[in-house]
Design brief:
The chain is α+β, with helices and mostly antiparallel strands. It has three domains: 1-85, 2-Layer Sandwich (Phosphorylase Kinase, domain 1); 89-278, Orthogonal Bundle (Transferase(Phosphotransferase), domain 1), CATH 1.10.510; 284-400, Nucleic acid-binding proteins (OB fold (Dihydrolipoamide Acetyltransferase, E2P), Beta Barrel), CATH 2.40.50.140. The protein contains eleven helices and 21 strands. The chain has helices at residues 52-60, 90-94, 108-124, 178-185, 194-209, 219-228, 241-250, 261-269, 273-293, 300-305, 358-364, and strands at 5-9, 12-15, 21-24, 28-35, 38-46, 69-74, 78-84, 88-89, 127-128, 137-139, 147-149, 156-157, 163-165, 191-193, 313-322, 339-344, 350-355, 373-377, 380-384, 387-392, 397-400. Strands 1, 2, 3, 4, 5, 6 and 7 form a seven-stranded antiparallel beta sheet that branches. The longest helix has 21 residues, at 273-293. It starts with a strand and ends with a strand. The chain binds adenosine-5'-triphosphate and magnesium ion (MG). Adenosine-5'-triphosphate (ATP) is lined by residues 22-23, 25-28, 30, 41, 43, 83-86, 89, 92, 135-136, 138, 150-151, 153. InterPro entries: IRE1/2-like, Kinase-like_dom_sf, NA-bd_OB-fold, Prot_kinase_dom, Protein_kinase_ATP_BS, Ser/Thr_kinase_AS.
Length: 401
């Protein structure tokens, strides 16, 4: 080390010059240093800015994918936290700012797996990180490379339910869960939790896999989109099995809907299962899209009680197509009306359905298959005594399920 080195104790020194600075954060400055004869990172924090929890939590953590506190010194003005010297943080790496020796990053899945294991370990020690972002993930200089969770400056111990009280807005805006953002607008008793860490980790995983694209959009709109649960980059990843199966469930809007880290690890440890899970998911997705299209899915019994009978959708199964020629069809000039019978998904029995005119009949009748289920919308329902009749009109729509 050059002449700018400052000795903190007999075995610890740091390069207290501009060239010695590795990182400059909100509370600390991180310098190149020497501890015995090892190159290390020395995080220098003003005594007034010290968060005792950072040190306390670091002391209990001991995992390959979590930064290890090697040593601690202090003087009147500063605390000095000594860490393994890493090659880069993930943000600088992804932005191409890292200029050192080439880094042999493990496969994408391995990177996510290491980070998931590290975070799961942190949570098993009842610590919530609360400031997850790419700048707080380090890439080791070792071979093989390790991904490392760092910066426990905001971390907190949880209660028995896995959450911790939150007295104000914590974390970095772009990466925090919606329930934490809500804290700013109304100081309800929202608590940061393991699930809010999982949300942030999911955003970071996305940012890593689709380099530098945030799932919730650009910096000026990202907070609003997180609050509304609006994933901006959804189209981009519609066909990406890892993102769909692992990452999107991590950034679910409601904390209780988020995937657990145990499940994430299970997928990543055996990634062969991911494509199969994706196929199942796609089927479910298309079903839920259909239901979304047919927002006004309604029970027949409710429908018959309503005066206004438009704009609704029913779900029904065609049980029998009928070729009967009925009374009106044999009247001169009146085309035959074909009927079919549908079984209703609401369990209220069978109803007779008909296509009102020959034109409608030709349009719908050939499409219907006995035994298949459909969403039927924009038709008319009438009750004639005990009988209920569903009439298909020109504008009616029949969507197979
Ligand atoms: N052990 C390390 N090895 C290499 N670089 C490090 C190490 N620790 C920290 N850094 C670098 O220093 C930066 C700041 O460190 P850290 O996140 O711990 O401080 P901070 O003051 O809490 O930062 P912020 O408030 O911006 O998150 C990191 O983003 C990283 O680039
Ligand atoms: Mg930091």
């Amino acid at each position: 080390m050059s002449g700018t080195q400052t000795w903190i104790s007999a075995n610890l020194s740091y390069n207290n010059s501009k060239s010695g600075i590795i990182g400059d954060g909100r509370y600390g400055v991180v310098f190149h240093g020497t501890f015995f004869d090892q190159n290390v990172a020395v995080k220098r924090i003003q005594q007034i800015d010290v968060n005792p929890r950072e040190e306390a939590n670091l002391r209990v953590l001991n995992h390959d994918n979590v930064i290890k506190l090697k040593w601690l010194e202090e003087n009147e003005t500063f605390r000095f936290l000594v860490f393994e010297l890493c090659a880069s943080d993930l943000d600088n790496y992804l932005k191409g700012k890292y200029k050192g020796q080439p880094i042999k990053l493990p496969s994408d899945v391995q990177v996510l797996l290491q980070l998931s294991r590290g975070l799961d370990y942190i949570h098993t020690k009842n610590v919530i990180h609360r400031d997850i972002k790419p700048g707080n993930i380090l890439i080791s200089k070792t071979d093989p490379v390790r991904m490392i969770w760092a910066d426990f400056g905001y971390s907190k111990l949880t209660n028995n339910h896995g959450s911790t009280s939150q007295s104000g807005f914590r974390g970095t805006h772009c990466w925090v869960a919606p329930e934490i953002l809500r804290l700013r607008s109304n100081s309800t008793n929202a608590r940061s939790s393991k699930q809010s860490d999982i949300f942030s980790a999911g955003c970071v995983f996305f940012y890593f896999l689709k380099p530098r694209i945030h799932p919730f959009g650009k910096e000026n709109s990202v907070e609003g989109n997180i609050s509304r649960g609006k994933i901006i980059s959804a189209d981009l990843v519609a066909n990406d099995p890892v993102i769909q199966v692992v990452v999107i469930p991590m950034i679910a809007h409601k904390s209780e809907d988020r995937i657990s880290l145990t499940k994430v690890i299970e997928f990543l440890e055996d990634p062969k299962g991911i494509p199969a899970a994706f196929e199942t998911m796609k089927t479910k997705l298309s079903e839920s899209t259909l239901i979304k299209i047919n927002k006004k899915l309604i029970w027949i019994s409710t429908l018959l009680q309503q005066e206004k009978k438009t704009g609704w959708t029913i779900q029904a199964q065609v049980i029998k197509k009928s070729q009967l020629l009925l009374m009106e069809s044999i009247k001169p000039g009146v085309p035959p009306t074909k009927y079919f019978f549908v079984e209703l998904a609401d369990g209220s029995g069978t109803i007779r359905a008909r296509a009102c005119t020959a034109k409608n009949c030709d349009k719908f009748y050939p499409l219907l298959k006995e035994g298949k289920e459909y969403f039927i919308q924009k038709s008319t329902l009438t009750a004639l005594g005990e009988e209920r009749i569903l009439s298909l009109r020109a504008e009616s729509e029949i969507i197979p399920i």
